[in-house]
Write a structure and sequence with these properties.
disordered N terminus; MFS_sugar_transport-like; MFS_dom; transmembrane; membrane
């Protein structure tokens, strides 16, 4: 029989879990988006300038994408050990790896002082960021969702999800502070860009302290006590659920490709490249960064609302709302950006952020409900990593190439729209499993009934 103090204790633990997951993912994605924004704003000039202006931009965005290729390796490793030794331990390890690699980016030399060694070092550190990100997300969302009551999984799962727009907001805000106040103009290129990377070490210490206060996921604890941990969770995942991984990854690919218009640095670069250097808009860096930060607030709100709404109407219906919202405004985004007016830029990004939130907020609960308990960390981490490669990995680079090749941003809208349509179709093929029992006792039901053509 449950004691009178148990509900209060459970509520306190849920608050600790919510705080730990949102703080940790905010720090993780601050680091990740900081690199992407810097790639769009300054890395082309600092590390790849000998290639020429347009080529340097494309190469700089390619380094953003290369890290995605290492996400599956990070997901494989974190998934394997997360299903073997627990969710909590992997969360601390991935946070330390991300923080260390980000801080080191703040001290590496540029091409001017170190030649080819500079971009090589930059690439290696970006790869470490990719490994960390590949393992971080799965652990964070499972800690949140597996602690949650069945009727509040979407809401609890939204906490690590809102860490992503919070990370974007923090990265854009710090960069705006540096470009507009602390180190404007040439000072930002000389030294100001380094400061946001160096700040990561402080954030990581805070994140580790918070995360160590959280108890292990109750689902993993139950599996461990029963000694039912899978010895090869990744092998079991692909042997039994390969098609599920592919379709679920495609649902994320649509969100990721669209989201990386801002989080991958493309819009920042597109809007700020001077007209004299072949740009189309030529706005100042600081107002663009502030507009991105403002749109991140809209993204954050819609992400949390989507998680809450999905508990009431189901994950699948919430996704459909998101895809419709995305497609409705897709061809308005670039005309608004092309005006060169910061308020219209913000309007375009804010409208875009509605679909971004409603195809993201419920994803933590959605992915957790797709996979059996014994291989769940591997399932959600690897699916997320594959979706990121298919969708967002090279979206900024492809977009930059399309603009250079066609001379118009409309080609980018068609490209993103095509990825969204595929993701929409994949969403329709998967069955809504909102509220399914996630416990170790229910592995049989968790193993089947994922697709609309199955009973």
């Amino acid at each position: 029989m449950m004691s009178a103090t148990a509900p209060a204790a459970q509520r306190r633990e849920l608050r600790r879990v919510a705080a730990a997951t949102v703080i940790g993912t905010t720090i993780e994605w601050y680091d990740f988006f900081l690199y992407a924004s810097a790639a769009g704003l300054v890395f082309g000039k600092l590390f790849f300038e000998p290639a020429g202006a347009q080529a340097a931009t494309i190469i700089s965005f390619a380094t953003v994408g290369v890290s995605f290729l290492f996400r599956p390796l990070g997901a494989f490793l974190a998934g394997h050990f997360g299903d073997r030794i627990g969710r909590k331990a992997m969360l601390v390890i991935t946070l330390i790896l991300m923080g260390a690699s980000t801080t080191l980016i703040g001290v590496i030399p540029t091409y001017e002082t170190a030649g080819l060694l500079a971009p090589i070092l930059l690439m290696l550190l970006r790869i470490l960021q990719g490994l960390s990100t590949g393992g971080e997300w799965g652990g964070a969302v499972l800690m949140a969702v597996e602690h949650a009551p069945d009727a509040r999984r979407g809401r609890m799962g939204a906490f690590p999800q809102i860490g992503v727009p919070l990370g974007m907001l923090l990265a854009s805000g710090v960069l705006a502070l540096m470009t507009g106040v602390v180190s404007p103009g040439d000072a930002f290129l000389e030294w100001g860009w380094r400061v946001p990377f160096l700040l990561s070490i402080i954030l990581v210490v805070v994140g580790i302290v918070v995360r160590r206060t959280v108890e292990e996921s109750p689902v993993f604890t139950e599996i461990a006590e029963r000694k039912e941990r899978s010895s090869m969770p990744v092998v079991q995942l692909f042997a039994k659920h390969g098609l599920l991984v592919l379709l679920a990854a495609l649902t994320f690919a649509g969100n990721n490709a669209a989201g990386y218009m801002t989080t991958g640095g493309f819009i920042q670069n597109y809007a700020t490249t001077p007209l004299a250097e072949g740009g189309f808009v030529g706005m100042e860096r600081t107002p663009v960064l502030l507009a991105v930060a403002g749109a991140s607030v809209v993204w954050l709100i819609c992400t949390f609302v989507a998680g809450v709404v999905s508990d009431r109407i189901g994950r699948k219906k919430t996704y459909i709302i998101g895809w419709v919202a995305f497609l409705a405004v897709l061809f308005l985004l670039f005309p608004l950006v092309n005006t060169g007016n910061v308020w219209l830029l913000f309007l375009g990004l804010a409208l875009f952020s509605i679909g971004n939130g409603f195809t993201y907020g419920q994803q933590a609960a959605y992915f957790a409900e797709l996979f059996p308990a014994s291989i769940r960390y591997s399932g959600v981490s690897i699916t997320y990593a594959i979706g990121a490669i298919l969708g967002g990995a090279f979206a900024p680079m492809i977009s930059a190439w399309l603009v250079a090749a066609t001379g118009t941003s409309t080609s980018v809208a068609y490209y993103i729209g095509a990825v969204m349509v595929v993701a929409f179709a994949a969403t329709l093929l998967l069955r809504d499993r909102t509220g399914i029992d996630l416990g170790a006792d229910n592995e049989g039901a968790q193993q089947r009934g994922h697709f609309v053509w199955q009973k």
